[in-house]
Amino acid sequence: MLIHKLLLLLLAGMSGGRWLTTQAADGFRIYVNDQPAGREAFSVTKTEGRITWTGRASLELRSLLITIGSFTLITDAQHRPREAHVKATVGSSEQEIRTTFAEGKARNEITVGGTTTTKEDAVSPDALVVLSNVPFFLYEVLAQRVDFSRTGPQEFRIYVLPQIELPLTVRVKGRERVSFANRSDDLIHLELALAQPAGQTISMEMWMDDARRLIKLVIPGPLFIEVYREGYERPTERAAPKEYDAVEVTFASGEIALAGTLTLPRERSHPLPAVVLIAGSGPHERDQNVAGVKVFAQIAEHLTRHGFAVLRYDKRGVGRSGGRYETATTSDFADDAHAAVRFLRARPEIAPDRIALIGHSEGAIVALLVAARDPSLQAIVLMAGPATSGEEVVLEQQAYLLRNLPEKDRQERIALQKKILEAVKTDRGWEEIERAFPPEARASLAVARSPWFREFVRLRPLALLERLACPILILQGGKDTQVFPHHAEAFARALEALGKVPYEVKIFPRLNHLFQQAETGDLSEYGKLTKQLDSEFLAVLTEWLRKYLKGG
Questions:
Q1: Are the CB atoms for 314 and 321 separated by under 8 Å?
Q2: Cα 115 from Cα 110, distance rounded (Å)
Q3: The whole model's pTM is what?
C-alpha cells in the first residue's frame, strides 16, 4: 500500500480561559497487513476545566482512502466528551460531523455531499468514550479513563460517531517488556473487547506508557492494523536466505500491465512445471496478505522449494499493476489470470504443457472460468471455493454474521439484504434502499452497485464444471466461516455425477478460510493465530501437484 504523507499543520484548539499546559504535537505510523498505510498527527491542549484533542490522519484500507482533514474532541477535566467536530473524506465522499454531548444525548449534525441532516442518540453520560476507525488518538483518550490498578474487567460505553453506542470491556493485563526495532520499554498492556450490533466482538490490544500515552495498538482481523507512536519503530522480521530465485515480472492483460513475482527453483536443468496463484475477492496484492497472514507468499515459497515455478501477481489496480480495481469484474480477473498463463507459456524456463491454477475463494471461480476456456491447462486447485451462486454466498455469509442478533432484528437485516440483491439484479428499488440507510452510511452501497457485484451475484460455479477438461483438487477448511464446508461437498457431488475428470476433495477439520489452524474459524480470529499455513495442507497440495504436473 502507498504511504499517504500527512500534512503536519494542526488546528489550534483554544477554549478560552487561562492556559494551563500544552502538550507538544505527536503522531502515529499506521500499518495494515504488514504494509505502511498511513500517518496521524495530533496535539492536546489543556485549559481550565477542559481538554482539547486535535488531529489529522490519512489511512488507506485496501483501495479505500480515508482522510481526516481535522478531528477535534473536547472533553471535560475527567475526559468525558462534550463536543466533537470531524471533517473527513472517505473515498470520494466528503463528510462533516458536529456532535454535542449533553443531558444524556448525542446531537449530531451530519453533512454528506452538501446535504445536512440531524440525528439524536441516547448515550450514557458517565461512562461514555468516543471512538472511531480513525484517528487513533481516541484510544489514548480512552486510556485516561482506565484504572490501571484494577485487574478485573472495566466496563465502558462507546459512542461510535455518529451512529451507535456499544459496550466496551477493558482488562489491564499488567506490565511487560515490549521490543521495538529501535528500543525496548516496560509498558502497560490492555485488552479491549468491543461488542458489535450483530453479536460479534472486536478484540484489540494496546500498550501504554506510565504517562498514559498510547505506544502501540493492534486490531486483529481480515485487515490486521498496527499503530505505533512516532519514535517507536515497528519490528521487522529478518528475511531468511532464499533457496530459490524470485524474479520481478510484468505481463500484459489486454492494454493493462500487471506486475508480479515469479519464483523459480535455483537448481533447474529442464523446463519446469508451473503454477499461477489467483487471489480471492478484494484488492489483494501478490502475497494475498490477510490479517498479517501472507497466504500466497507462503504457498509460492513452499511449492518452489519442491520444484515448481510459481507466479503470483498484484490484482489490476492494486500495488504495481495498472488498470482500475473499482471497475473490474470477475470476468476481468479471469482475463488477467489467463494472461498470466500465456506469459508463463512463453518463458523458456517453463514447460508450457504443465501449468496449473490455484484459486482461493473467489479466485477459485476465476480458476474455473479460465479452465473452462483453456482445455490445455494441466490441473486446477480450488481453495475454499464457493459452489453456489454469488447471491447465495452473500446471504449465507450475512446469516452467519447476524447469528447472535435477536430474531426480529436479524430478519429485518436479511430482508434488507434481499432487497439490495434484487435491486442489483433488476436495477430497480435503489431509492427505497437508500432511504433505509443514514446519509453517512450510504457510501457503503457503492460496492453493491459496482460492476463486480452485479456480475458476482449471477455466477454459477457448478455450471462451469461441465466445460472442465483437467483434474481438479478441492481443498477446504472445516472451520471456514466465509465459505462453509458444504461448498466442497457440493463440488464433489457435481464432479461425481459428471464423471468427466479425475478429482479429489480434502476437508481439513481444524482449518479456517486462510488454511490456518483455528479455534472458531471466525474472521476476528485470523490475526490472533499463527501466521503460518497448516503443514498438512501444504503437503497435500504439493503431492497432488507433483502427481499431475510431474507425473508422480
A1: yes
A2: 8
A3: 0.79
Please count the residues of the chain: 552
For residue 272, count CB atoms less than 10 angstroms from its CB and return exposed for 0-12, middle for 13-18, buried for 19 or more: buried
Classify burial at 264, counting beta carbons within 10 Å of its beta carbon; exposed 0-12, middle 13-18, buried 19 or more: buried
- β-strand partners of 275: 310, 356
Q: CA 507, 509, 512: angle at the middle one, nearest 5?
A: 90
Instruction: Flag whether pLDDT at 343 surpasses 90.
Output: yes
What's the rounded Cα separation, in Å, for the pair 62 and 32? 8
Q: Answer whether 521's CB lies under 8 Å from 513's CB.
A: yes
Residue 191 near residue 139 (C-beta atoms within 8 A): no
Element (H, E) at 276: strand 272-278
How far, CA to CA in Å, does 133 sit from each of 91, 136, 160, 198, 225? Answer: 14, 7, 9, 18, 11
pLDDT at 388: 96
58: pLDDT confidence band, cut at 50, 70 and 90? confident
φ and ψ at residue 494, rounded to 5 degrees: -65, -40
Tell the burial category of 170 from Cβ atoms under 10 Å away from its Cβ (0-12, 13-18, 19+): buried
- CB 340 within 8 Å of CB 333: no
**Are 126 and 142 within 8 A, CB to CB?**
no
CA dist., res. 82 & res. 87, Å (int): 17
* Cell numbers for 333: 480477473
Provide the terminal-to-terminal Cα distance of the chain, rounded to the nearest Å: 40
Q: Does domain 244-389+460-549 fall into CATH 3.30.460.10? A: no
CB 73 within 8 A of CB 138: yes
CA distance 334 to 371: 10
Q: What is the DSSP string of 288-334?
A: -EETTEEHHHHHHHHHHHTT-EEEEEPPTTSTT--S-GGG--HHHHH
Mean pLDDT of the 100-127 span = 89
CB within 8 Å of 225: residues ≥ 6 apart: 30, 31, 32, 217, 218, 219
Q: Mean pLDDT over residues 362-390, rounded?
A: 97
Give the span between the Cα atoms of 298 and 187, in whole angstroms.
33
The residue extents of the domains of the chain are 19-229, 244-389+460-549, 391-454
> Rounded to an integer, what distance in angstroms lies between the CA atom of residue 439 and that of residue 96?
11
CA distance 552 to 543: 8
Rounded mean pLDDT of 426-441?
Answer: 82
Confidence check: pLDDT of 435 > 90: no
The pLDDT assigned to 68 comes to 86
Tens digits of residue pLDDT in 210-236: 999 999 999 887 778 899 999 999 988
